[in-house]
Amino acid sequence: MLRDGLSFEEESVWIQLISTGVILGAYFFVAGVMMAQGVDHLVPYIPVFAVAVVLLVVVLTLGHILAAIAGRPGQRDERDRVIAWRAEHNSSWLLAVGVFVAIGAMVAGVETVWIAHGLLASVYASELLRFAFQIKYYRLGVS
User: Fold this and answer.
1) How far is residue 39's CA from residue 114's CA, in Å, rounded to a whole number?
2) The dihedral sign for the CA sequence 65, 71, 73, 79
3) pLDDT tops 80 at residue 3
């Protein structure tokens, strides 16, 4: 277990938050360097993103295996479902804003590489916000 007193579901959220934050954060750092160097086609980003996704899957899998070994995963209950729903509800606006900004950028003729990374960044930020809300609701309760 990550900390005493955490349910498996809450541990899972912590694992997802840390793993996604670090690994995709590293992808965005590398992508930012590539963009600063003038890489303006999407193809060179594909292997970097593929490595990040594979690494994320491996880390998430190992993290959940370790959490399951350290403490018995319980059945997901109504509280877990409400927390997940409420967190998704409170974070999805960020993804919607990113989509509308991307549409505006397409209309304005912004390069595809910037639009793609803007969309990816909005998914990334929305997921991190969702995880943060879930942790908040596990710690403070859902009202």
Assistant:
1) 11
2) negative
3) no
**Phi, psi for residue 37 in degrees, rounded to 5:** -85, 0
- Tell me how far apart the alpha carbons of residues 3 and 28 are, in angstroms, rounded to a whole number: 29
Residue with tokens 């950028």, as numbered in its chain: 105
Over residues 58-78, the pLDDT tens digits come to 999 999 999 888 877 777 788
pTM: 0.89
How far apart (Å, rounded) are the C-alpha atoms in residues 135 and 130? 9
The answer to whether the beta carbons of residues 118 and 102 sit under 8 Å apart is yes
What is the b/e burial string over 69-80, where b = at least 16 CB atoms within 10 angstroms of the residue's CB? eeeeeeeeeeeb
